[in-house]
Design brief:
The chain is of the alpha/beta class. The chain has one domain (about 10-235): Rossmann fold, CATH 3.40.50. The protein has helices at about 15-30, 40-50, 65-80, 100-130, 150-170, 195-205, 215-225; strands spanning about 10, 30-35, 55-60, 85, 135, 175-180, 185, 210-215, 235-240. Strands 3-2-1-4-5-6-9 form a seven-stranded parallel sheet, sandwiched between helices. Helix 6 links the parallel strand 7 (about 185) and strand 8. Helix 1 (about 15-30) crosses helix 7 (about 215-225) and helix 4 (about 100-130) packs parallel to helix 5. The longest helix is centred in the middle third of the chain and has 29 residues, at about 100-130. Belongs to the short-chain dehydrogenases/reductases (SDR) family.
C-alpha cells in the first residue's frame, strides 16, 4: 500500500518541473490528484500519462473564483481534500532600478497571494478530513536575501510567515502546514536561455557541487504529505545541497 493511499491532493503549477514530479510521486503512492496550471497542453499530456486517478485543470492561482472552482470540482471528482501543495511560482530577476511596479505586483500575486487564497479556500474541505497537510513551496530566498531578487525574495519570505500563522490557526482542525525551501533545482525555470552562466555561478557555491533534482524534492514533499510527518507543523524544510548551512 502506498503512503498516500486513499488521499486526495491538489497541486498547483503541476504541468512541468517540480510540480509534475510531485504529481507523479503522489499517484505512485496511491493518491488521487488534481493538478493545475496555465500550461494547458503540457497539463493535459501529463494527465493522460498518469491515468484515471488524475485530473488536470487550467487555473489562475491569483483569482479567488478559480480557486473555488478547483476545490469544488476536486470534491466532486474525488472527495474532500487531504493535501494541498502550493507549488506555482515565478521569478523576475531585476534590480530595484529596473523593476517596475507591475512586475513586482505580478510576482507577489503569483507567489504570495495565491498561497493565501489556496489555504483559505481549501480549509473548509480539509476540515472534513480532520487530518490535512498543506505544503507551501518557498525557497532558500525565503531564508536569506539576494541582490536582484527583491520581488522574489519578498514573496518567498512572506510564504514562510504565512505558513507559520496558518499552522497555528489550523492545528485545532488536525491540519498541518509546513514550508519547503529548495535551492537550485534542475527545472525549466532555470533553463531559460541566457541564464547559463548565472546558474553555473550558483552551482559553484553549493557545497554538494551540483543542482538538485525534482525527484529529490518530491521525496521531501511526500514525507510532509504523509503520516510520516504527523508531528511536524509550522516548520521550514530546507533542501539546498548545504547552501544555507553556514548562514
Amino acid at each position: 500500500m502506498g503512503k498516500l493511499e486513499g488521499k486526495v491532493a491538489v497541486i498547483t503549477g503541476g504541468a512541468r518541473g517540480q510540480g509534475a514530479s510531485h504529481a507523479r510521486t503522489f499517484v505512485k503512492e496511491g493518491a488521487k490528484v488534481v493538478f493545475t496550471d496555465i500550461l494547458v497542453e503540457e497539463g493535459e499530456a501529463l494527465a493522460k500519462e498518469l491515468g484515471e486517478n488524475v485530473k488536470f485543470m487550467k487555473h489562475d492561482v491569483t483569482k479567488a473564483d478559480d480557486w473555488h472552482r478547483v476545490i469544488d470540482e476536486t470534491e466532486t471528482a474525488f472527495g474532500p481534500i487531504d493535501i494541498l501543495v502550493n507549488n506555482a511560482g515565478v521569478v523576475v530577476t531585476k534590480n530595484f532600478d529596473d523593476l517596475s511596479e507591475e512586475e513586482y505586483r505580478k510576482v507577489i500575486d503569483i507567489n504570495q497571494v495565491s498561497i493565501f487564497l489556496g489555504m483559505k479556500t481549501v480549509l473548509p474541505s480539509m476540515k472534513k478530513t480532520g487530518n490535512g497537510s498543506i505544503i507551501n513551496i518557498s525557497s532558500i530566498n525565503g531564508l536569506r536575501g539576494s541582490a536582484g531578487n527583491v520581488a522574489y525574495d519578498s514573496s518567498k519570505f512572506a510564504v514562510r510567515g504565512m505558513t507559520k500563522s496558518a499552522a497555528l490557526e489550523f492545528a485545532e482542525y488536525g491540519i498541518r502546514v509546513n514550508s519547503v525551501h529548495p535551492g537550485v533545482i534542475q527545472t525549466p525555470m532555470i533553463e531559460v536561455e541566457g541564464t547559463e552562466k548565472l546558474v553555473e555561478k550558483l552551482v559553484a557555491t553549493i557545497p554538494m557541487q551540483r543542482k538538485g533534482q525534482s525527484e529529490e524534492v518530491s521525496k521531501l514533499i511526500l514525507y510532509l504529505a504523509s503520516e510520516d510527518s504527523s508531528y511536524s507543523t509550522g516548520a521550514e524544510f530546507v533542501i539546498d545541497g548545504g547552501v544555507t548551512a553556514s548562514n
